[in-house]
Design goal:
mainly alpha; about 400 residues; Growth Hormone, Chain: A; 17 helices
């Protein structure tokens, strides 16, 4: 691994390519949310059953992280991302032609496992090439592109499903993934040292107290901030809104992340990381207070905006923390970070799916509110302690 002093900022062209990759990955991840009702109707299955495709996607996305980390330490960061995008294209095209719900769950799980290499691959690439003192800015740019992908997914996928077919939406990201794999051949490959043994990497990460803390925090964060996100369009559709309108309204999440990410980027030099976590966590808590009180369109959109702000402030700070804690095992640390995030998301989707299927929206938002308070408290205090110990 190169020393911090020897690194230079990643080129603008390379960063744009990484941003497009994270955009596509997050578009594919969230696109099923506004299409749940449409897919359920066309396949003749309940929404709860179709939501299994989302839960399995998130679970495979998380589980595959470690495998991609091991491969990237040996094959290279760029080569690994290119391979994963090619496989994601195959999975996406398979998702577009499935005959039934069982095949859809399998195809989405495979696709999620392949797209799993995209975001952590981009994060590790930045970690390998950008000094930690200026790293949060390009990492925030990647988060912004991810959020834009989420916003575009809720608007575009819902509209495509309503006016054309949900199969077209799945095919779209598949073809983009194939194109990205081709164009990524121009991305410079960071030099790799001798890769440590797999179990040595895992042990090096898991024997660090701060790393373990962050992994637990991001697991809970995935449940709290991502678990209910999949069902927000369904909440709006339950009040009588169309697929397209509900997707358009929940796109406020991505727009909020984009706006607040700019604030985070401007404040990283002047605000302590623990304070960024506190602000973001406070916004998430307020979001669930609002949505426990009301499930109307205004309340859900307000909560969606607050969740986007919470993600921008809190998650970007935890993410930067993850890239700095175990520099000798960065790929493994970042991959386990993503594994825990999307495992938490999968748990949330699996737990909340039956609640949503029976209209139990208050229970879903109440549970996330109850969990978010200790999450914010522990994350804030943990990050403050990490800083004061000079880590």
């Amino acid at each position: 691994m190169s020393s911090d002093a020897s690194r230079t900022t990643v080129s603008a062209g390379s960063l744009r390519l990484l941003q497009l990759t994270t955009f596509t990955s997050q578009f594919d991840r969230l696109m099923i949310a506004p299409m749940l009702v449409v897919i359920a109707t066309q396949l003749g299955r309940p929404v709860e059953e179709v939501s299994h495709a989302a839960a399995v996607y998130f679970l495979c996305y998380g589980i595959a992280q470690v495998g991609w980390a091991v491969l990237s330490d040996r094959l290279g960061r760029v080569r690994t991302m290119r391979l994963a995008l090619l496989l994601a294209m195959a999975g996406g095209l398979g998702s577009a032609v499935v005959p039934g719900i069982g095949w859809l769950v399998a195809a989405r799980g495979f696709t999620g496992g392949c797209f799993a290499a995209a975001v952590p691959g981009a994060l590790v690439y930045v970690g390998d090439t950008v000094p930690v003192r200026v790293r949060q800015a390009p990492l925030t740019d990647l988060m912004t592109s991810s959020a834009t992908g989420m916003a575009a997914a809720t608007v575009t996928a819902g509209a495509i499903a309503e006016f054309s077919s949900w199969r077209v939406a799945f095919a779209l990201t598949a073809l983009i993934a194939g194109a990205l794999s081709f164009f990524m051949r121009s991305l410079a490959e960071p030099p790799l040292g001798t890769p440590p043994p797999v179990w040595s990497s895992i042990r090096g990460v898991l024997t660090s107290g701060p790393v373990l803390l962050v992994l637990v925090l991001v697991l809970v964060e995935g449940l709290v901030l991502l678990g209910p996100l999949t069902f927000l369009p369904v909440v709006l559709q339950a009040s009588g809104l169309s697929v397209t309108v509900s997707g358009l309204l929940t796109a406020a999440y991505g727009a909020s992340v984009v706006v607040f990410a700019r604030v985070v980027k401007a404040r990283t030099r002047t605000m302590a990381p623990w304070l960024l976590i506190l602000v973001g966590g406070g916004m998430a808590v307020l979001a669930y207070v609002v949505m426990v009180i009301s499930h109307g369109a205004v309340a859900v959109v307000a909560g969606t905006v607050l969740l986007g702000g919470g993600w921008a402030f809190m998650h970007s700070t935890l993410q930067t923390w993850a890239t700095d804690m175990a520099p000798g095992y960065r790929a493994m640390a970042v991959s386990l970070f993503a594994t825990m995030l999307f495992t938490g998301s999968a748990i949330g989707t699996a737990v909340f799916g039956p609640m949503v299927g029976t209209g139990g929206f208050t229970a879903m938002f109440g549970i996330t509110l109850a969990i978010s308070v200790p999450l914010v408290t522990v994350a804030t205090l943990g990050r403050h302690r990490y800083a004061t110990k000079g880590a």
